[in-house]
Amino acid sequence: MRPRAVPYLLALPAWLWLGVFFVLPLCGMLSVSLMTGDLLSGFTQTFHLGTYAEAVQRYRVQLLRSLLYGGSATLVCLVIGYPVAYWIAFHAGRSRGGYLLLLLLPFFVSFVLRTVAWQFVLADDGVVLGTLKDAGLLPEGARVLNSAPAVVFGLAYAFLPFMVLPIYAVLDRMDRRLVEAARDLYAGRAAAFLRVVLPYSLPGVSAGVLMTFVPASSDYVNAAVLGGPGTTMIGNVIQTQFLVNNAYPTAAALTFTLMAVLLLGILGYALAAGTERMAGGRG
Amino acid sequence: MEPRPSAALALARGLARARIGRRGALALPALAGAAAVLGGCSIPARERPAVDPGAYWADKRSNGRLTFANWPLYMDPDRTPLARFTERTGIRVDYRETIHDTPSFFGQIQPRLAGGHSAGCDLMVLTNGRELSTLLRLGYLAPLDHGLLPAFTAHGGESYRHAPYDPGNAYCLPYASGITGIAYDPERVGREITAIADLWDPAFSGRVGMMRDAPEIANFGLLLNGVAPAESAPADWDAAADRLREQRDAGIVRGYYEQDYLRPLTSGDVWLSMAWSGDVFQQNLEEGTRLRFVIPEEGATIWTDNMVIPITAENPLDAITLMDFLYEPETAAGLTEYIAYVSPVPEARELIRERADRADGAEAARLAELAASPLVFPTEEDYARLHSYVTPPAGEDQAFTSRFLAITQE
């Protein structure tokens, strides 16, 4: 056997897996998105592109809302996640592994279950709001559940580790002498952070933003469990169109639209952020 | 637990680089080829011609076994009725709790039935609605021979013989029914709730729970407008949708719920909500809550879970024998004691009362309450106020559903 073929053969299982379970269904979905018909008379291939225009026109609010919620959740994750990653990398010392485990611990419980648990925590007379109301810090009618902030909060909670881990990974392997050098050159603590640590960590931030924004924008569990009237995300629409309304072409068209929008967004972001930086290169 | 930094970065790198190399150049035509192959495909419906019951049942023999697909918690854990059935007839039942929601189950069985294959069960329980109607229209269900249903003929309740989706029980026999009405917490609401219009009262702004299911909220919008759902036309659907939109835009609705409406109702987030009768009964019994359930003045709807036999069933004769067995009053009473939903066998009530007299302690109280409950055994007056669901004509399903999805999914 020629050694050149070996890597390809080794990669074969992965290619097969991707082909059978990703590429093929994707092609099937693409095909369905161009069909017309209904469940009773069957769906036939007519290459009807109009479904895309109709679906996007009808659900543009939910599409934009998904990007808005996903973006807001990513921002919240960044604001909360960066200090966490920084602290674990620079100040947690030997117990870093322990803190990372704590960060990941909630992931040992089912995603849906964790989201449902927030319903109990955030109930109007629940542990948090009830206590604050009793203490007179919140008006009697205040509520959080079934609102846009609740959905964004749920998304941020669910995807926080995806932001923390890449930033932590970059900061952890940073040469501490770089900071010492900055201090030697009369940089204050703030200047050392802003001019040395922060630029160094940007590749991690870029990766974290991507890994948070993409799943957060396409999520549907949080909107279904923590949302209310007027917080439907595009994921919920797709699910309903597939399962409840049996409008397979509409659902498939929305799926592809969402994929295209996210891919274009990522591409634009990557161009703006610079691929070399994202790749973690330093020159 | 140590994370792999390079994995995240490699992913980002891969995503960020749009280069088409030699392999990419090969993959693109392959992709296009696959798409072209699939482009030729379609998803056929494959309607089956209607079958005459006589012709269908003529060559059917008992095989001494059957598979029964049902919803969770819809029979006692010991499967007492099935054990008695096997004792009597020698037919073994493979009981499976495989149905968790109608659309997903429909998604599983529809392609198999379209291909003429077994649905994986000989008897299944489906709620009236779009999926059941579709199966009926496509001819995927076995017609029932009433000569094989002596117990149903003798004991089946009169109200269960005229379903608009299946007049004369040609294909479906009810397993249990439930009422969609209003449940409320009397302490929080502070007054008696009697009407659907109360769900539109601005005094309860942000405290009203509505259902997410399109037919369910459509029914309430229609009843509020004084229209019987089963006789409604598209213009009525529009008017109902307008009322529901007003209610949402006025900020009265707290959320659109599925089966999870009980949690906000018991925690106090929601004060009054659309609700299913059996849920409220069980909730009060098990959790000691004091929720009240009312059939509103404007009327409410009754839904029915139906036993049906897929036309490709391998053991249809065993399945229809079990269907009939469940209509014997003794069996029906036992079933109702556990599930607390409306029984299609009115005689079950008297039997439960007798058992309550014979039992003692908590069990006696529970059975007595069950037999007395209008939620489990509605009175004739109650039945008069209970409506059937909207059954959109063929081809108008999506138009109907979309109108109401636009309200719950805005």
Automatic annotation (TrEMBL), chain B:
PROSITE patterns: TAT (PS51318). GO terms for cellular component: periplasmic space. The keyword Magnesium does not apply. InterPro entries: SBP, Sperm_putr-bd, TAT_signal. GO terms for molecular function: polyamine binding. Pfam families: SBP_bac_8. This is ABC transporter substrate-binding protein. Keywords: Periplasm, Signal, Transport. It is found in: Periplasm.
